[in-house]
Design a protein that fits this description.
This protein is α/β, with parallel strands linked by helices.
């Protein structure tokens, strides 16, 4: 597939194959953009600003609804391509498509709600006699840099609010999974004037970096790892930056929890998308009174997970994004075992597949739980008290989401108040998101929020206009 620059398909001299991680087949290839094409995309996005900003909110909203309809019409084709390039089960690909359609709808609605407010200047010293109000204005050009795990919906979480508040966009999709994003950008391009949406493909360290360093881009909206996020924040200079980064989310299960519900939470949270979810359940902190019962039920439910061909409707666990990624997970688990942990079920790798794996006797200092393990692994940590559970939950550089299972409202509120995370759920695992909620982490999990209304706030600037009526 070609890049999309100023409404045109553009190729380049070099290209990179996109591989299906399930069978190793080459699905397609994309250009490795040279920097002159990145410059062309930046030029096109800047040139298109005026025509987009001239468009009424009514028209922008209608056009976003039209894109939404087009995505609905092509849902099956998109879902199959998503499964092929990421290796996620087809059922999960359909969920991502439904979420993408919902995200677009939310943005089409939000396009009509870009409000300012009146400001009573007379509440300040010397402010009497003014009529003042604010406007929320587009920033200009937004560069969207996105990861492989939910390539479509996470990219739409940037494109849709950016256009809703009349910014033009340049996308740098993940090199491992760029195809659904390019295909989607083509749908947007059919509705909007040339240059409103552009896609440049190629390596993050070159193409992504060129966007981050450019002084002709007004905002970087990035989703990806902490390491890349830190590089971006150093390179971006004065431009606005939103960073949606990794997580190492704790799930706390207290003695008075509904064990069945908590186990279901782990099954849904630790193995979804083969564990490649920023807000996945990555550390399971269980109080000693129910530890054995919880462990036995978790192993039993894990044994029922069906791993296999991602295109098969009955498959629950597909591949990881690549064999390299699966080897990395295998090594993290094996290192924990060397340090005293015990695999209760799973632990075997076959190419890019890694089994759903429960690991017992994990201690807080093991790399498996210090770092973000991006695979279908459920590491169990045993604690005596609620205090200890909260302390371990917070003993991490990350702070994306957290969950606590308990029937005691005091413990629920204590955990909710004291666990440092952008979202804490009670009796629900992390790995839960609706596309309208404010989403974003504390600590090294990032800065800024997404969720359409909140993304719009981050993609607009506020101007105050004051009329001196005296
Ligand atoms: P990644 O390696 O950081 O890559 C993300 C994107 O950044 C890719 O498009 C990548 O391009 C690009 N990139 C790499 N180096 C860059 C640089 N120096 N400058 C600019 N762009 C650069 O992350 P990933 O492995 O794809 O995704 C997994 C990570 O994302 C996990 O940590 C996960 O938790 C996190 N994540 C967070 C959220 C959230 O909302 N908080 C959601 C999903 C995932 P290439 O593909 O060419 O390398």
């Amino acid at each position: 597939m070609d890049m999309l620059i100023n409404g045109e398909h553009v190729s380049d001299m070099d290209s990179e194959d996109v591989i299906n991680p399930f069978n190793g087949e080459v699905i397609d290839s994309v250009p490795i953009s040279h920097l002159n094409n990145v410059d062309k995309a930046i030029g096109a996005a800047n040139n298109a600003k005026e025509v987009l900003q001239e468009m009424s909110a009514f028209k922008v909203s209608n056009k976003l609804y039209n894109v939404c309809e087009k995505l609905k019409e092509n849902k099956e084709e998109f879902a199959e391509l998503l499964t092929k390039e990421v290796g996620k089960p087809i059922n999960e690909a359909y969920v991502e498509l439904d979420r993408s359609i919902e995200t677009l709808k939310l943005a089409a609605e939000e396009a009509k709600r870009i409000y300012g407010e009146s400001v009573p200047l007379d509440a300040g010293l010397n402010g009497k006699g003014f009529f003042a109000f604010t406007q929320r204005l587009p920033l200009g050009v937004v560069a969207a840099i996105t990861p492989f795990n939910y390539p479509l919906n996470l990219t739409i979480h940037k494109i849709a609010p950016a256009i809703a508040c009349k910014n033009t966009v340049i996308i740098k999709p993940p090199t491992d999974a760029p195809l659904t994003v390019i295909k989607f950008a083509e749908l947007v391009n059919e509705e909007f004037p040339a240059g409103v949406i552009n896609v440049v493909t190629g390596y993050g360290s070159e193409v992504g970096d060129a966007l981050v360093a450019s002084d002709k881009i007004d905002k970087i909206s990035f989703t990806g790892s902490v390491m890349t996020g830190m590089m971006i924040s150093q390179r971006a200079g004065m431009k606005k930056v939103t960073l949606e980064l990794g997580g190492n989310d704790p799930l706390v299960v207290l003695d008075d929890a509904d064990v069945g519900a908590a186990v279901k939470g782990v099954i849904n949270g630790a193995y979804l998308n083969a564990g490649q979810v920023c807000m996945g359940v990555k550390r399971i902190i269980v109080q000693e009174g129910i530890y054995e019962e919880f462990k036995a039920k978790l192993v039993e439910e894990t044994s029922k997970i069906k791993m296999g061909n991602p295109m098969d409707r009955s498959t629950q666990l597909g591949t990881l994004i690549s064999e390299k990624a699966a080897i990395h997970v295998e090594e993290s688990v094996n290192n924990a075992v060397k340090d005293g942990a015990e695999i209760l079920i799973g632990g075997k790798r076959d190419g890019a597949f890694y089994e759903a794996t429960v690991v017992d006797k994990v201690t807080p200092d093991m790399d498996l739980v210090v770092n973000e393990t991006f695979g279908p692994v459920a590491p169990l940590l045993k604690v005596k008290t609620v205090d200890e559970a909260i302390q371990i939950a917070n003993a991490t550089e990350y702070g994306l989401q957290a969950g606590v299972f308990t029937e005691n409202y005091r413990n629920a509120l204590r955990c909710a108040n004291e666990i440092e995370a952008g979202t804490v759920f009670v009796n629900k695992q992390p790995t839960f998101r609706t596309d309208n909620m404010p989403f974003g982490g504390f600590k090294n999990s990032g800065c800024g929020k997404e969720g359409i209304k909140y993304a719009v706030e981050e993609m607009t600037k506020t101007k105050l206009i004051g009329l001196n009526l005296r």
